[in-house]
C-alpha cells in the first residue's frame, strides 16, 4: 500500500468515499441534488487545479489502482476560495444557483485542516486510517503550517479515539451545519 497525492484517475473512487462523509454530515444539498449531480459536481470540483494541489491536497492510500482510503484538506486561509469552486459548475450541471455545499467556516486560518478522511468499508480496521493520519505532518510541513486541525462529530467517539491516539487534542466545540463537533488540533 502506498500513501500518495491523488491522481485525476483516482477522483471517481475518492468521490464515493466523500459521499459517505457527506451523508454522515446530513448536508442539505444531499436532498436538493440527484446522486448524479452530486457525483459530477464533486468530480469536476476535485479535478480543478485548486483541488489538485494548487490550494488543497487530496491524498490516497492505494493498492495497485484501488483507493483504499482518502483524505483531503487545505490551509485554512484558503477555505472560502475552495468553497467558491463548486458554483463554477452549477450551470453546466443544472444545479440551482442558491445551492450551498459548504458555507460555514470550519478551519482556522493558520492550520492545515483535514476536511475529510474516509476508508473504504471493506478495508476498515486494517490501520489505513492511522497510516493516513501519520502522513499528515508531511503534508502540513509542505504547506508551511505548524498545526493540523480537524472536526470530529460528537456522535463519532470511535473516530475521536483514533485521532487522540495519534496525538490530536480537543481545543473547542464547534457547530457546523447544525452538528456539534470537537475541533481537535495536533502540532507538527
> Mind describing the biggest β-sheet?
7 strands, mixed
The low-confidence parts are none
Strand line-up in the sheet with most strands: 1-2-3-4-5-7-6
Total domain modules: 1
Structural class: alpha+beta
Broad shape: globular
Question: Based on DSSP secondary structure assignment, what is the total number of beta strands?
Answer: 7
- What is the H/E order? EHHHHEEHEHEHEE
Number of helices: 7
CATH topology description: Aminopeptidase
Characteristics of this structure?
seven-stranded mixed β-sheet, 7 helices, 188 residues, alpha+beta, Aminopeptidase
Notes on the protein architecture:
A seven-stranded mixed sheet has the order 1-2-3-4-5-7-6, with helices on both faces. It has a single domain, classed as Gcn5-related N-acetyltransferase (GNAT) (Aminopeptidase, 3-Layer(aba) Sandwich), CATH 3.40.630.30. It is built from seven helices and seven strands, in the order βααααββαβαβαββ. The chain has helices spanning 11-25, 29-32, 35-46, 50-54, 79-83, 128-142, 157-165; strands at residues 2-5, 56-63, 66-75, 112-119, 147-153, 169-176, 179-187. The mean pLDDT is 92.
